[in-house]
Amino acid sequence: MSASAASTKSDLFTYTLRQADNSMVLCQRLCEWAARAPELEEDIALTNIGLDLIGQARSLYQYSASLCDPKVSEDDLAFMRDAHQWTNLLLVEQPNGDFADTIARQYFYDAWHLPFLEQLTRSHDTTLAAIAAKSVKEAKYHLRHSSMWIKRLGDGTEYSHQRMQDAIATVWPFTKEMFVADELDLRMLEAGIGVDLDVLKRAWESQVVALLISATLTKPIDSEAITGGRQGQHTEYLHDLLAEMQVLPRSMPNRQW
Amino acid sequence: MDLMSKNTEIQLAHVRSILDTITDPEIPALTINEMGILRGVEIEADTVVVTITPTYSGCPAIDQITDDITAALAKHDYLSARVALVLSPAWTTDWMSDEAKEKLRQYGIAPPCKTSLLDDSQEDPDVTVIVACPNCCSFNTQLVSHFGSTACKSFWQCTDCLEPFDYFKPI
Ligand SMILES: [Zn+2]
Q: Right CATH number for A3-251 from 3.40.630.30, 3.40.50.1370, 1.20.1260.10, 3.40.120.10?
Protein backbone atom coordinates (compact mmCIF):
# COMPACT_ATOMS: atom_id res chain seq x y z
CA MET A 1 0.00 0.00 0.00
CA SER A 2 1.34 3.44 -0.89
CA ALA A 3 1.88 6.05 1.82
CA SER A 4 -1.03 8.16 0.58
CA ALA A 5 -3.40 5.18 0.41
CA ALA A 6 -2.40 4.28 3.97
CA SER A 7 -3.03 7.79 5.20
CA THR A 8 -6.37 7.90 3.39
CA LYS A 9 -7.33 4.69 5.12
CA SER A 10 -6.41 6.06 8.51
CA ASP A 11 -8.29 9.31 7.72
CA LEU A 12 -11.36 7.33 6.76
CA PHE A 13 -11.07 5.30 9.96
CA THR A 14 -11.02 8.42 12.14
CA TYR A 15 -13.73 10.17 10.15
CA THR A 16 -16.04 7.16 10.51
CA LEU A 17 -15.13 6.69 14.17
CA ARG A 18 -16.14 10.28 14.98
CA GLN A 19 -19.62 9.67 13.64
CA ALA A 20 -19.89 6.35 15.43
CA ASP A 21 -18.84 7.94 18.73
CA ASN A 22 -21.47 10.69 18.41
CA SER A 23 -24.23 8.14 17.88
CA MET A 24 -23.02 5.81 20.62
CA VAL A 25 -22.67 8.48 23.32
CA LEU A 26 -25.98 10.15 22.51
CA CYS A 27 -27.68 6.74 22.49
CA GLN A 28 -26.29 6.01 25.96
CA ARG A 29 -27.58 9.37 27.23
CA LEU A 30 -31.08 8.81 25.81
CA CYS A 31 -31.29 5.33 27.30
CA GLU A 32 -30.73 6.88 30.75
CA TRP A 33 -34.29 8.16 30.35
CA ALA A 34 -35.73 4.62 30.22
CA ALA A 35 -38.43 4.41 32.90
CA ARG A 36 -37.75 8.05 33.91
CA ALA A 37 -39.36 10.12 31.11
CA PRO A 38 -42.25 12.50 31.94
CA GLU A 39 -44.77 10.23 30.21
CA LEU A 40 -44.88 6.69 28.87
CA GLU A 41 -44.98 7.73 25.19
CA GLU A 42 -41.86 9.82 25.71
CA ASP A 43 -40.09 6.99 27.45
CA ILE A 44 -40.72 4.87 24.36
CA ALA A 45 -39.80 7.69 21.96
CA LEU A 46 -36.43 8.51 23.55
CA THR A 47 -35.38 4.89 23.77
CA ASN A 48 -36.51 4.28 20.17
CA ILE A 49 -34.34 7.17 19.02
CA GLY A 50 -31.54 5.61 21.06
CA LEU A 51 -32.14 2.30 19.29
CA ASP A 52 -31.80 3.96 15.87
CA LEU A 53 -28.58 5.61 17.04
CA ILE A 54 -27.03 2.39 18.32
CA GLY A 55 -27.92 0.72 15.04
CA GLN A 56 -26.17 3.51 13.17
CA ALA A 57 -23.23 3.34 15.58
CA ARG A 58 -22.86 -0.40 14.99
CA SER A 59 -22.74 0.00 11.20
CA LEU A 60 -20.15 2.75 11.61
CA TYR A 61 -18.03 0.84 14.17
CA GLN A 62 -18.09 -2.25 11.95
CA TYR A 63 -16.84 -0.15 9.05
CA SER A 64 -14.19 1.57 11.21
CA ALA A 65 -13.04 -1.81 12.53
CA SER A 66 -12.68 -3.13 8.98
CA LEU A 67 -10.31 -0.23 8.21
CA CYS A 68 -8.17 -0.90 11.24
CA ASP A 69 -4.76 -2.54 11.20
CA PRO A 70 -4.04 -4.49 13.40
CA LYS A 71 -7.50 -6.00 13.52
CA VAL A 72 -10.06 -4.87 16.08
CA SER A 73 -13.76 -5.61 16.56
CA GLU A 74 -16.70 -3.22 16.82
CA ASP A 75 -16.89 -4.12 20.52
CA ASP A 76 -13.22 -3.23 21.05
CA LEU A 77 -13.95 0.22 19.68
CA ALA A 78 -17.05 0.73 21.81
CA PHE A 79 -15.92 -0.82 25.06
CA MET A 80 -12.13 -0.85 25.26
CA ARG A 81 -11.22 2.77 24.60
CA ASP A 82 -10.73 5.34 27.38
CA ALA A 83 -12.23 8.82 27.38
CA HIS A 84 -9.18 10.50 25.78
CA GLN A 85 -9.56 8.15 22.80
CA TRP A 86 -13.20 9.11 22.18
CA THR A 87 -13.86 11.52 19.35
CA ASN A 88 -17.50 12.55 19.86
CA LEU A 89 -18.74 16.12 20.00
CA LEU A 90 -18.92 17.62 23.50
CA LEU A 91 -22.61 18.38 22.92
CA VAL A 92 -23.72 14.74 22.97
CA GLU A 93 -21.92 13.84 26.21
CA GLN A 94 -23.56 16.64 28.21
CA PRO A 95 -25.74 15.26 31.00
CA ASN A 96 -29.47 14.87 30.49
CA GLY A 97 -30.38 17.61 32.98
CA ASP A 98 -34.12 18.10 33.01
CA PHE A 99 -36.39 17.13 30.13
CA ALA A 100 -36.00 20.56 28.49
CA ASP A 101 -32.18 20.23 28.57
CA THR A 102 -32.42 16.81 26.90
CA ILE A 103 -34.78 18.14 24.22
CA ALA A 104 -32.56 21.20 23.55
CA ARG A 105 -29.48 18.97 23.17
CA GLN A 106 -31.44 16.56 20.97
CA TYR A 107 -32.91 19.24 18.75
CA PHE A 108 -29.61 21.03 18.13
CA TYR A 109 -28.01 17.69 17.30
CA ASP A 110 -30.88 16.47 15.07
CA ALA A 111 -30.92 19.75 13.14
CA TRP A 112 -27.20 19.16 12.46
CA HIS A 113 -27.32 15.37 11.99
CA LEU A 114 -30.03 15.29 9.29
CA PRO A 115 -28.32 17.67 6.81
CA PHE A 116 -24.96 16.04 7.68
CA LEU A 117 -26.38 12.67 6.59
CA GLU A 118 -28.08 14.16 3.54
CA GLN A 119 -24.70 15.43 2.33
CA LEU A 120 -23.03 12.14 3.21
CA THR A 121 -25.44 10.16 0.99
CA ARG A 122 -23.48 11.74 -1.89
CA SER A 123 -20.08 10.68 -0.50
CA HIS A 124 -17.63 9.03 -2.89
CA ASP A 125 -17.15 6.40 -0.21
CA THR A 126 -19.93 3.94 -1.03
CA THR A 127 -20.10 2.39 2.45
CA LEU A 128 -20.48 5.75 4.20
CA ALA A 129 -23.04 6.77 1.57
CA ALA A 130 -25.04 3.57 2.17
CA ILE A 131 -25.01 3.96 5.96
CA ALA A 132 -26.08 7.60 5.53
CA ALA A 133 -28.91 6.72 3.12
CA LYS A 134 -30.26 4.30 5.70
CA SER A 135 -29.78 6.66 8.68
CA VAL A 136 -31.28 9.70 6.97
CA LYS A 137 -34.77 8.18 7.07
CA GLU A 138 -34.44 7.67 10.81
CA ALA A 139 -32.96 11.10 11.48
CA LYS A 140 -35.99 12.74 9.84
CA TYR A 141 -38.20 11.30 12.55
CA HIS A 142 -35.78 12.33 15.28
CA LEU A 143 -35.85 15.92 14.08
CA ARG A 144 -39.64 15.97 13.78
CA HIS A 145 -39.92 14.72 17.32
CA SER A 146 -37.47 17.12 18.97
CA SER A 147 -38.85 20.06 16.93
CA MET A 148 -42.34 19.25 18.15
CA TRP A 149 -41.20 19.43 21.78
CA ILE A 150 -39.27 22.68 21.32
CA LYS A 151 -42.47 24.24 19.97
CA ARG A 152 -44.75 22.68 22.53
CA LEU A 153 -42.66 23.76 25.50
CA GLY A 154 -41.46 27.08 24.07
CA ASP A 155 -44.94 28.14 23.00
CA GLY A 156 -46.65 26.51 25.98
CA THR A 157 -47.16 28.06 29.39
CA GLU A 158 -45.08 30.89 30.79
CA TYR A 159 -43.33 28.35 33.00
CA SER A 160 -42.57 25.81 30.23
CA HIS A 161 -41.38 28.68 28.03
CA GLN A 162 -38.89 29.83 30.67
CA ARG A 163 -37.59 26.31 31.30
CA MET A 164 -37.11 25.75 27.53
CA GLN A 165 -35.39 29.12 27.14
CA ASP A 166 -33.02 28.28 30.02
CA ALA A 167 -32.25 24.87 28.51
CA ILE A 168 -31.37 26.40 25.16
CA ALA A 169 -28.99 28.81 26.89
CA THR A 170 -27.32 25.92 28.75
CA VAL A 171 -26.73 23.82 25.63
CA TRP A 172 -25.99 26.62 23.16
CA PRO A 173 -22.21 27.04 23.81
CA PHE A 174 -21.66 23.41 22.81
CA THR A 175 -23.29 23.79 19.39
CA LYS A 176 -20.38 25.77 17.89
CA GLU A 177 -18.07 22.76 17.87
CA MET A 178 -20.30 21.01 15.31
CA PHE A 179 -19.13 23.44 12.62
CA VAL A 180 -15.43 23.79 13.38
CA ALA A 181 -13.64 22.03 10.52
CA ASP A 182 -10.21 20.64 11.37
CA GLU A 183 -7.52 19.32 9.00
CA LEU A 184 -9.22 15.95 8.70
CA ASP A 185 -12.58 17.49 7.80
CA LEU A 186 -10.91 19.51 5.07
CA ARG A 187 -9.02 16.52 3.63
CA MET A 188 -12.21 14.43 3.60
CA LEU A 189 -14.13 17.23 1.90
CA GLU A 190 -11.35 17.61 -0.65
CA ALA A 191 -11.49 13.87 -1.38
CA GLY A 192 -15.24 14.03 -2.00
CA ILE A 193 -15.86 11.76 1.00
CA GLY A 194 -16.75 14.16 3.77
CA VAL A 195 -19.29 16.86 4.51
CA ASP A 196 -18.95 20.61 3.89
CA LEU A 197 -19.40 22.09 7.37
CA ASP A 198 -19.89 25.64 6.05
CA VAL A 199 -22.87 24.53 3.96
CA LEU A 200 -24.10 22.57 6.96
CA LYS A 201 -23.81 25.60 9.21
CA ARG A 202 -26.02 27.70 6.96
CA ALA A 203 -28.67 24.94 6.78
CA TRP A 204 -28.56 24.49 10.55
CA GLU A 205 -28.81 28.18 11.36
CA SER A 206 -31.78 28.83 9.09
CA GLN A 207 -33.62 25.79 10.44
CA VAL A 208 -32.85 26.67 14.08
CA VAL A 209 -33.73 30.37 13.77
CA ALA A 210 -37.06 29.56 12.08
CA LEU A 211 -38.04 27.04 14.73
CA LEU A 212 -37.02 29.22 17.68
CA ILE A 213 -39.13 32.07 16.30
CA SER A 214 -42.17 29.83 15.83
CA ALA A 215 -41.64 28.52 19.37
CA THR A 216 -41.48 32.14 20.69
CA LEU A 217 -37.95 31.47 21.94
CA THR A 218 -34.98 33.79 21.71
CA LYS A 219 -31.71 32.72 20.08
CA PRO A 220 -28.96 32.96 22.72
CA ILE A 221 -26.09 35.40 22.26
CA ASP A 222 -23.12 33.73 20.58
CA SER A 223 -20.17 32.96 22.81
CA GLU A 224 -16.73 31.46 22.28
CA ALA A 225 -16.88 27.92 20.86
CA ILE A 226 -16.11 25.17 23.37
CA THR A 227 -14.19 22.51 21.44
CA GLY A 228 -11.87 19.56 21.94
CA GLY A 229 -14.18 16.54 21.81
CA ARG A 230 -12.87 15.26 18.52
CA GLN A 231 -9.30 15.53 19.79
CA GLY A 232 -10.14 13.52 22.92
CA GLN A 233 -10.39 16.48 25.30
CA HIS A 234 -13.71 15.82 26.98
CA THR A 235 -15.80 17.21 29.79
CA GLU A 236 -15.80 15.17 33.01
CA TYR A 237 -19.26 13.82 32.11
CA LEU A 238 -17.90 11.45 29.47
CA HIS A 239 -15.82 9.60 32.08
CA ASP A 240 -18.90 8.72 34.13
CA LEU A 241 -20.86 7.75 31.04
CA LEU A 242 -18.13 5.40 29.81
CA ALA A 243 -17.61 3.90 33.27
CA GLU A 244 -21.23 2.80 33.31
CA MET A 245 -21.37 1.74 29.65
CA GLN A 246 -18.11 -0.23 29.67
CA VAL A 247 -18.11 -1.88 33.09
CA LEU A 248 -19.58 -5.20 32.02
CA PRO A 249 -17.39 -6.03 28.99
CA ARG A 250 -14.32 -4.78 30.89
CA SER A 251 -14.93 -6.82 34.01
CA MET A 252 -15.87 -9.93 32.03
CA PRO A 253 -14.05 -9.78 28.68
CA ASN A 254 -15.40 -11.84 25.79
CA ARG A 255 -18.49 -12.99 27.67
CA GLN A 256 -21.51 -13.82 25.51
CA TRP A 257 -25.19 -13.65 26.35
CA MET B 1 -31.74 -24.85 -20.69
CA ASP B 2 -29.04 -27.35 -19.74
CA LEU B 3 -29.46 -29.80 -16.91
CA MET B 4 -27.16 -27.91 -14.57
CA SER B 5 -29.03 -24.63 -14.74
CA LYS B 6 -32.33 -26.49 -14.59
CA ASN B 7 -31.24 -28.10 -11.34
CA THR B 8 -30.26 -24.72 -10.01
CA GLU B 9 -33.66 -23.30 -10.96
CA ILE B 10 -35.43 -26.10 -9.13
CA GLN B 11 -33.21 -25.67 -6.11
CA LEU B 12 -33.77 -21.91 -6.05
CA ALA B 13 -37.54 -22.40 -6.19
CA HIS B 14 -37.29 -24.85 -3.32
CA VAL B 15 -35.20 -22.46 -1.24
CA ARG B 16 -37.64 -19.62 -1.94
CA SER B 17 -40.57 -21.77 -0.80
CA ILE B 18 -38.73 -22.48 2.46
CA LEU B 19 -37.99 -18.77 2.94
CA ASP B 20 -41.68 -18.00 2.35
CA THR B 21 -42.43 -19.69 5.67
CA ILE B 22 -40.23 -17.27 7.65
CA THR B 23 -42.10 -14.40 9.25
CA ASP B 24 -40.96 -11.15 10.82
CA PRO B 25 -40.65 -11.90 14.57
CA GLU B 26 -42.18 -8.52 15.42
CA ILE B 27 -44.98 -8.74 12.84
CA PRO B 28 -45.79 -12.46 12.53
CA ALA B 29 -48.60 -11.70 10.05
CA LEU B 30 -46.04 -11.00 7.32
CA THR B 31 -43.22 -13.05 5.86
CA ILE B 32 -39.78 -11.52 5.41
CA ASN B 33 -40.46 -11.61 1.67
CA GLU B 34 -43.72 -9.65 2.02
CA MET B 35 -41.92 -7.16 4.28
CA GLY B 36 -39.27 -6.53 1.63
CA ILE B 37 -36.56 -7.69 4.04
CA LEU B 38 -35.60 -10.58 1.75
CA ARG B 39 -33.53 -9.08 -1.08
CA GLY B 40 -32.19 -12.07 -2.97
CA VAL B 41 -31.39 -15.76 -3.14
CA GLU B 42 -28.42 -17.20 -4.98
CA ILE B 43 -26.65 -20.51 -5.20
CA GLU B 44 -22.87 -20.19 -5.32
CA ALA B 45 -21.20 -23.58 -5.82
CA ASP B 46 -22.79 -25.61 -2.98
CA THR B 47 -23.74 -22.67 -0.81
CA VAL B 48 -27.11 -20.96 -0.64
CA VAL B 49 -26.62 -17.22 -0.14
CA VAL B 50 -29.64 -15.36 1.19
CA THR B 51 -29.44 -11.57 1.12
CA ILE B 52 -31.51 -9.54 3.58
CA THR B 53 -31.73 -5.90 4.60
CA PRO B 54 -32.77 -4.41 7.97
CA THR B 55 -35.88 -2.24 8.18
CA TYR B 56 -34.21 0.17 10.63
CA SER B 57 -30.50 0.44 11.53
CA GLY B 58 -31.12 -0.79 15.06
CA CYS B 59 -33.80 -3.36 14.22
CA PRO B 60 -33.33 -6.02 16.92
CA ALA B 61 -35.22 -8.59 14.82
CA ILE B 62 -32.48 -8.89 12.23
CA ASP B 63 -30.34 -11.35 14.24
CA GLN B 64 -33.41 -13.48 14.94
CA ILE B 65 -34.31 -13.47 11.22
CA THR B 66 -30.74 -14.51 10.33
CA ASP B 67 -30.94 -17.44 12.76
CA ASP B 68 -34.42 -18.41 11.51
CA ILE B 69 -33.19 -18.52 7.91
CA THR B 70 -30.18 -20.74 8.60
CA ALA B 71 -32.25 -23.01 10.86
CA ALA B 72 -35.08 -23.42 8.31
CA LEU B 73 -32.65 -24.16 5.49
CA ALA B 74 -30.65 -26.61 7.64
CA LYS B 75 -33.86 -28.50 8.35
CA HIS B 76 -34.11 -29.10 4.59
CA ASP B 77 -30.45 -30.14 4.39
CA TYR B 78 -29.09 -26.87 3.07
CA LEU B 79 -26.34 -27.01 5.63
CA SER B 80 -23.90 -24.50 4.19
CA ALA B 81 -26.35 -21.60 3.83
CA ARG B 82 -25.05 -18.11 4.41
CA VAL B 83 -27.00 -14.93 5.19
CA ALA B 84 -25.59 -11.68 3.79
CA LEU B 85 -26.71 -8.33 5.17
CA VAL B 86 -26.89 -5.33 2.82
CA LEU B 87 -27.72 -1.70 3.65
CA SER B 88 -28.04 -0.39 0.10
CA PRO B 89 -30.51 0.30 -1.39
CA ALA B 90 -32.04 1.35 1.92
CA TRP B 91 -35.23 -0.47 2.88
CA THR B 92 -38.48 1.30 2.08
CA THR B 93 -42.09 0.51 2.97
CA ASP B 94 -42.85 0.92 -0.76
CA TRP B 95 -41.49 -2.62 -1.18
CA MET B 96 -44.56 -4.00 0.61
CA SER B 97 -47.24 -5.23 -1.79
CA ASP B 98 -50.90 -4.21 -1.53
CA GLU B 99 -51.71 -7.73 -0.27
CA ALA B 100 -49.07 -7.37 2.42
CA LYS B 101 -50.52 -4.02 3.48
CA GLU B 102 -54.01 -5.54 3.70
CA LYS B 103 -52.62 -8.31 5.91
CA LEU B 104 -51.09 -5.63 8.15
CA ARG B 105 -54.45 -3.89 8.47
CA GLN B 106 -56.21 -7.13 9.37
CA TYR B 107 -53.52 -7.74 11.97
CA GLY B 108 -54.44 -4.37 13.55
CA ILE B 109 -51.62 -2.17 12.23
CA ALA B 110 -52.51 0.72 9.91
CA PRO B 111 -50.44 0.14 6.73
CA PRO B 112 -48.00 2.79 5.45
CA CYS B 113 -48.99 5.10 2.60
CA LYS B 114 -46.76 5.36 -0.48
CA THR B 115 -43.74 7.51 0.37
CA SER B 116 -44.42 9.54 -2.80
CA LEU B 117 -47.53 10.89 -1.06
CA LEU B 118 -45.44 12.45 1.70
CA ASP B 119 -44.84 16.16 1.38
CA ASP B 120 -41.31 16.62 2.72
CA SER B 121 -41.66 20.40 2.68
CA GLN B 122 -44.09 20.00 5.57
CA GLU B 123 -42.63 20.11 9.05
CA ASP B 124 -44.45 16.89 9.91
CA PRO B 125 -45.51 15.08 6.70
CA ASP B 126 -47.10 12.27 8.73
CA VAL B 127 -49.93 14.39 10.05
CA THR B 128 -50.76 15.67 6.55
CA VAL B 129 -51.70 12.18 5.31
CA ILE B 130 -54.95 10.53 6.32
CA VAL B 131 -54.51 7.39 8.39
CA ALA B 132 -57.53 5.11 8.62
CA CYS B 133 -58.26 3.33 11.89
CA PRO B 134 -57.55 -0.39 11.34
CA ASN B 135 -60.34 -1.21 13.78
CA CYS B 136 -63.35 0.76 12.45
CA CYS B 137 -61.94 2.27 9.21
CA SER B 138 -62.69 5.83 10.43
CA PHE B 139 -60.53 8.64 9.05
CA ASN B 140 -60.91 10.60 12.30
CA THR B 141 -57.58 9.64 13.78
CA GLN B 142 -54.77 11.53 15.47
CA LEU B 143 -51.05 11.07 16.02
CA VAL B 144 -50.21 10.44 19.67
CA SER B 145 -46.45 9.89 19.32
CA HIS B 146 -43.92 9.58 16.49
CA PHE B 147 -42.64 6.44 18.15
CA GLY B 148 -44.77 3.37 18.86
CA SER B 149 -44.15 -0.15 20.12
CA THR B 150 -41.22 -0.62 17.72
CA ALA B 151 -38.98 1.71 15.72
CA CYS B 152 -40.98 1.13 12.52
CA LYS B 153 -44.32 2.30 13.94
CA SER B 154 -45.85 5.50 15.25
CA PHE B 155 -48.62 5.60 17.80
CA TRP B 156 -52.13 6.83 16.91
CA GLN B 157 -55.62 6.96 18.32
CA CYS B 158 -59.03 6.79 16.62
CA THR B 159 -61.33 9.60 17.74
CA ASP B 160 -64.44 7.59 16.75
CA CYS B 161 -63.95 4.16 18.30
CA LEU B 162 -61.26 5.56 20.67
CA GLU B 163 -59.00 2.54 20.10
CA PRO B 164 -55.25 3.25 20.14
CA PHE B 165 -53.33 1.70 17.26
CA ASP B 166 -49.94 1.48 15.58
CA TYR B 167 -49.28 3.02 12.17
CA PHE B 168 -46.49 1.59 10.07
CA LYS B 169 -44.35 4.64 9.28
CA PRO B 170 -43.81 5.24 5.57
CA ILE B 171 -40.05 5.50 5.01
ZN1 LIG C 1 -61.62 3.43 15.04
A: 1.20.1260.10
